[in-house]
Amino acid sequence: MSRTPQGQRASLDKQPHEVAAMFDGVAERYDLTNTVLSFGQDRSWRRSTRAALGLRPGERVLDVGAGTGVSTQELAQSGAYAVGADLSLGMLYAGKRARPQVPLLAGDALRLPFADASFDAVTISFALRNVNDTDAALRELARVTRPGGRLVVCEFSTPVNPAFRTVYLSYLMRSLPAVARTVSSNPEAYVYLAESIRAWPDQAALAGRVAAAGWGRVAWRNLTGGVVALHRGIRE
Ligand SMILES: C[S@@+](CC[C@H](N)C(=O)[O-])C[C@H]1O[C@@H](n2cnc3c(N)ncnc32)[C@H](O)[C@@H]1O
Q: In the prediction, which pLDDT does 7 show?
């Protein structure tokens, strides 16, 4: 882990205590920073995630890596019962203050505090990339989902147009950390964000890993030209 006077960031091997500490450090201004750095796109990515899950009123949906509950709140708009789980107590406390009506609890994506087949749908937004063991997390998501239940992973991905990809990668590695210095409570965390996005598998590679973890009918849809991808699957 690297430490600076402004804060700390996790290393790319993503040790859980480093990841939790890093998110504790960004919690207070997380929602605002997200919206600024994504040029407001985060709202439409969340709406698309909710739509892709096809939630019906009364269904139970789990949002893993829920952070401040901003993604969980969006899911509840469907009329489903949405609960969020996260490793960072700082993010959970910030979420409790910002949106007390959203059920949020402490939980590790690799050992979820729920019985087998508890949920009709599960989702993870901008968090799978932070979990130390991606494949184990995808299997754990399958464990808590009922047979026939749905998964949607919302995660940064690889822009499909080569020219746009070059511009985007330059934004990620140069401008994003600079902008984060003006809005975030821990700008170092946004250097990690840029590095972890660059190191993340592309759409096809992630689809293969979702399928290998016990999910059927795996497919993906690109958002904002592939800056983000929604991967979906059905619990076999
Ligand atoms: C970028 S935030 C995403 C928050 C929210 N889902 C959203 O869409 O804004 C990533 C979150 O994943 C959480 N996280 C990382 N590793 C985790 C793990 N192993 N189990 C649960 N949460 C984890 C972090 O604490 C952080 O709150």
A: 60
Instruction: Say if residue 86 carries a ligand binding annotation.
Output: yes
Structure tokens at 6: 């402004």
pLDDT band of 1, cuts 50, 70, 90: very low
- C-alpha 216 – ligand 1 centre gap (Å): 24
Residues 6+ apart with CB under 8 A from 60: 80, 81, 83, 118, 119, 120, 121
Query: Is any atom of ligand 1 closer than 6 Å to the C-beta of 88?
Result: yes
CA–CA separation, 69 and 179 (whole Å): 24
| Domain assignment of residue 166, yes or no | no
Per-residue pLDDT averaged across 153-180, rounded? 93
State the residue range of the domain holding 58. 16-158+201-235
21 among annotated binding-site residues: no
What's the CATH number where 43 sits? 3.40.50.150
